[in-house]
């Protein structure tokens, strides 16, 4: 079985935001879509390791900002490579607003946002699937939505060349964010501490 076949599925990229007790937080997700038109409902799948997941479970309210091709890598670093448990992801951030539901949305590097209220959820193991009713939405720009493939090719920095001064060192590099784990073997249950992707998204690199 070639697990890389999963890479050929098409994904969008989104900033999922929520608010708990006046504190804004957000994370990057790649699974969001409309599931019904009457009533207008969307689904999102959120990794349980994300603090945003916990907030949505408690409040049932969130916004999805749709990332466009105009987004910079800084947007992904801010919302994808650090945890809201340890950092204020909105500190110093420009280009965001607050929707009628009281939750922040991202206005730079995005082309629209959708506000929603959870109506049901399903435990999927590593993730929770939330089904939510759309309560508000706005178009912010006409720039096309970015895809996971576009992010990999045009937004994500290319990996730096291996350091040959220490030949023979084995590392496992995350193909999503570039995080490196040093060791001969990568644990099967390893989760990237930055982007929360599993061991199957790591590649072996000998430096």
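^ structure tokens above, recovered residues below v
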């Amino acid at each position: 079985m070639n697990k890389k076949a999963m890479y050929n599925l098409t994904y969008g990229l989104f900033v999922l935001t929520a608010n708990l007790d006046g504190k804004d937080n957000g994370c990057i997700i790649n699974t969001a879509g409309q599931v019904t038109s009457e009533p207008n409902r969307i689904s999102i799948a959120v990794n349980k390791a994300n603090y945003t997941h916990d907030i949505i479970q408690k409040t049932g309210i969130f916004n999805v900002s749709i990332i466009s091709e105009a987004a910079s890598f800084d947007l992904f670093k801010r919302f994808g490579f650090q945890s809201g448990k340890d950092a204020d992801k909105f500190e110093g951030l420009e280009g965001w607003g607050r929707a009628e539901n009281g939750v922040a949305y991202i206005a730079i590097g995005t082309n629209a946002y959708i506000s929603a209220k959870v109506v049901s959820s399903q435990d999927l193991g590593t993730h929770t699937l939330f089904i939510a009713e759309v309560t508000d939405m706005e178009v912010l720009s006409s720039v096309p939505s970015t895809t996971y493939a576009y992010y990999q090719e045009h937004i994500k920095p290319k990996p730096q060349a291996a350091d040959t001064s220490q030949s023979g060192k084995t590392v496992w590099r995350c193909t999503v964010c570039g995080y490196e784990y040093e060791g001969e073997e990568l644990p099967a249950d390893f989760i990237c501490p930055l982007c929360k992707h599993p061991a199957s998204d790591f590649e072996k690199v000998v430096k």
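The chain has a mean pLDDT of 90.
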